[in-house]
Amino acid sequence: MTSESEQHSFAIVIERVRDFEFLARFDKEHYAPLTIDEPEPVGRDSEANASRILSAALGNCLSASLMFCLQRSKLGVKSIRAEVTTIITRNDEGRWRIGNVAVQIFLATEEQDERRLKRCIDIFENYCIVTASVRQGIPVDVSVIPNDA
To answer: Is the pTM of this model over 0.85?
Structure first.
């Protein structure tokens, strides 16, 4: 069981702009709002949709976790780039779901210390909060408050 001192929360406000376009406002004023839209024919496909944002979050979190380990191991990084391929498929009920996400990370380090590099490659995934959570499944409580102004 997790104690209260071992957890924290944040709140994001998502508000409809028009049609299926929404604006996400984050919990810190210095974070830029993010516009989200659905692909055609439902939305206008003017911005990334939630599936793409989740895919970007996975690629970012994994890259940052690897970068953190490399820095702690004192391995200089020349470049790091992630390519995330997401497969959208229908489930048994015919509803669209994310069927698979494949993340490839392309890394160039300044030093060639194979032992330290291998250690980071072996452990970095365990520190990515988004990937670890998605892999286990996340409980999501949903409620609808009708006629809210």
So the answer is: yes
